[in-house]
Structures are given as C-alpha cells and as structure tokens.
Amino acid sequence: METLYNDKASIVLRKLIQSPGKKWTIREFLKEEGSVSQGWAQKIFSILHEKKYGYWHRHGRNSYFKLTKIEPLIKKWSNHYSFNHNNVQLFFSDDYHIESKINEYLSTNYQFADFALGLFSAARLTHPVWINNNISFYLKPWLYNKIVRDLVFQFKLHRLKSGGNIWLINPYYKESLFCDSRNINDLPVVSDVQIYLDFMCLTGRGPEQAQVYIEKILKNWKKNNE
Prior knowledge:
By secondary structure, this protein is of the alpha+beta class. Helix content is 46%, strand content 16%.
C-alpha cells in the first residue's frame, strides 16, 4: 500500500481530517494520543503538501501544516484500501439480541479501546435507515484471538467459512483505526472515514451507503472550516 495510506501514516490523516481548519505544528502533533514520530509526521506533511492536499508553511518555530482538500484525499485513499486487508472470522447466531449481548460482554470484560463497532453495526448507530442486520466488530490485534475465543464460548457462536451474521475483524489498521473511534451511546464506534472506506469495498449497496458518509464528512468539514 502507498506510504500515505499505511497504518502509521493514516494516524496522521485521521487526526487531520478530524480537525477542520486546524494548523498543526509537529510538536503539537506529537503530543496527541496515538502519535507518530517526528520523522513520520514530517514525511506525511511533505507528501500531502506535494500532492496539494494541504499547505505546509515552513518557517522555523512558526511552521505549521493545514489540510485543505479532503475529498480527493479520502477518495484516493479508498482506491488504495481493500477490506480484504483485514483478517475476518465469520460466525452465526440465531439469537435476536446477540449484538446487544456482545456489546454488554465486551464493555464489561474489556477496555473501551479494545474494540469498536464497524460496518453494519456502526451504520445502524450513525445512519438509522440502514437495515442490514449483520453484526461487525473490530478487535484490538493483540487481544483478537482471546476475545474471539471468549465470545465463541460465551455465546456458542457457530464458525463458518462464508456467510454468517457476525464478523469479528482483526484490522489491517492495527493502530490508526482505533485512534479516531468515538463514543456513541456508550459504545466505541469507528469513524465515518473508516465506515466510508469499508462500504466502498462491498458489493451491492456498499458504495451507495458509502456515499452517505463521504457527504456527511464533507458537510462537517465545510461547516467547521468556514
């Protein structure tokens, strides 16, 4: 994957997109949770500046970077991302309340930052017209196997090779995916950017649903960047 869109670099992208109009200094950026090294930040600022996605004002202590064009940046990102980069295990449960039970179990037994609702589960919380009943959880990579074992044992989930209504995902974006997750109804939910990237990879109504999220992202950017 192109440097600009790998795991480490996308930490920078996600933070920039989260902060419309903000002028970032390297030092300020390094203080943020989930930060990257000074060298990485400088490299990503340089690439974004060269590709005209933003402006890097380099003037000693008064240097700063400002992201200015997010639509072409995010759409280019979607061209480089594939949902297949993730490791996904598929399961089935006929329990109508299985999603709320898994949410409660994870919230009780794990830290808030150890998982995040994605794809279909995230869409139902952020765009209620979404009616797909599949369930999707991103799990922290270093806890992935343990959490999967716990959930299979606790809820008697049936493992499948294809299909299924429960997706347990070990993310390609091992660090950055969780750095811009948010709290919705006391549940960790991936960002609208991540929802957009994932839906763009799906067949059927995936790209249609993705369009809802890119429009939402751009509307929020314009509103807070005026």
